[in-house]
Amino acid sequence: MTNGLEDVIAAETQLSDVDGEAGRLIIRGVSLDHLVADGTYEGVAALLLDGLMEKSFDEAELRALMAQARTRIFHHVDAALLTLPPFDAMRALLARLPDGEDLDTALSLLAAPAVFLPAVLRLQRGEKPIAPDASLAQSADILRMLTGKLPTREQTAALDTYLVTISDHGLNASTFASRVIASTQAGLTSSVLAALSALKGPLHGGAPGPVLDMLDAIGTAENAYSWLGEALDRGERLMGFGHRIYRVRDPRADALKGALKPLISTGQVNSARGTLAEAVEASALAILKARKPNRPLDVNVEFYTALLLEALGFPREAFTGVFAIGRTVGWLAHAREQALDGRLIRPRSVYIGPLPAAA
Ligand code: ACO
């Protein structure tokens, strides 16, 4: 047994499969590269939730239901939480939502991070939150609520690609947390809240902000190799590299790199950032190969997440919150799958402490 439970099978799922050796992600029978080609968040949400709620819906119906839910949720925005970092403010707002197992609860939870995060970010920079526009799809509305402007086609497509790409990913730490809570029948809000808390850590969803800090510190492509070597000498980990399951390149990294290209080619993003990132990626892969020859370490989803979300105008302290917007549907689908199975998750531990002294 290991502390990290690797290779332990803790659930059966029809939702997603991560093949770490082949670098392949399947979501409900569809491979990621197919899903991201023109895919929308509503489309992947309809796919993931299919058959798990009390009634069925297609992508168009779900789009309308999610838009109505965003409008309902906007009234829960509360400026009193402004002293908290954005992720913690979002978590606190979400914690106030009622619990339940029904579709209305699921829709509120899909809407909540999408509405709370832009509102909190605006309030923290002294601007008024912008109410949702129910005529828009979720990605376009998130960007509009953040910036006050209708996003371009390329920006909307890039955010959709991001949200689809990270919608579900096997039994990662936050999804496992969601399933554990669901197995106690506590309700969907409790499941999502637990998952959100698990996502926060830098070993899970908290890495993309530090990726940008690393790029800023490196500064130029020429500096990359020596900077990365010194970081490893100090015993640091290179943010955006390595994964518990993938032993090859994380397929999500390529999906996100692809989503950045139209923004660069249309001049909506400074191409210098992309050039620096590619140089850092190449240097990091070379140095990790030399320093850790027995551990295949490649780029993970967080590396290009950082560049994409920066390009879309999100501040780095909000990146983990945007991850939560996309992953909420995966947490919900897993929570429902677990709840329908009805079995309480209750593993055992091995006691290695002292025994009571004999009387
Ligand atoms: N930089 C340098 N060395 C690394 C890195 C890294 N990014 N990742 C793993 N290693 C090394 C470890 O130091 C260790 O070396 P050692 O055997 O010589 O001591 C070896 O690889 C194995 O490390 P573990 O911690 O056992 O690997 P684990 O499966 O737990 O790691 C993790 C997965 C946590 C993601 C790790 O690769 C990491 O810390 N990466 C940086 C943070 C990051 O990018 N997080 C986002 C992950 S993606 C996501 O969750 C959405």
Give the structure's gist in a few sentences.
Helices cover 55% and strands 3% of the residues. The protein has 359 residues and is mostly helical.
The gyration radius over C-alpha positions equals: 21 Å
How many E strands? 3
Q: What distance separates the N and C termini? A: 33 Å
> Helical percent range?
55-70%
Poorly predicted ranges (pLDDT <50, ≥5 residues)?
Answer: none
What is the spatial order of strands in the main beta sheet?
1-2-3
The CATH superfamily title of the largest domain:
Citrate Synthase, domain 1
Strand residue content: under 5%
CATH architecture of the largest domain: Orthogonal Bundle
What hetero molecules are bound to the protein chains?
acetyl coenzyme *A
Number of DSSP helical runs: 15
CATH topology of the largest domain: Citrate Synthase, domain 1
Classify the secondary structure makeup into a structural class.
mainly alpha
Mean pLDDT: 94
User: What is the H/E order?
Assistant: EEEHHHHHHHHHHHHHHH
Describe this structure in words.
The structure is a single chain. Helix 7 crosses helix 15, helix 8 packs antiparallel against helix 9 and helix 8 runs parallel beside helix 15. The protein is built from 15 helices and three strands. It folds into two domains: 207 residues, Citrate Synthase, domain 1, CATH 1.10.580; 104 residues, Cytochrome P450-Terp, domain 2 (Cytochrome p450-Terp, domain 2). By secondary structure, the chain is an all-alpha fold. Strands 1-2-3 form a three-stranded antiparallel beta sheet. A hairpin with a 4-residue loop joins strand 1 and strand 2. Acetyl coenzyme *A binds next to helix 14.
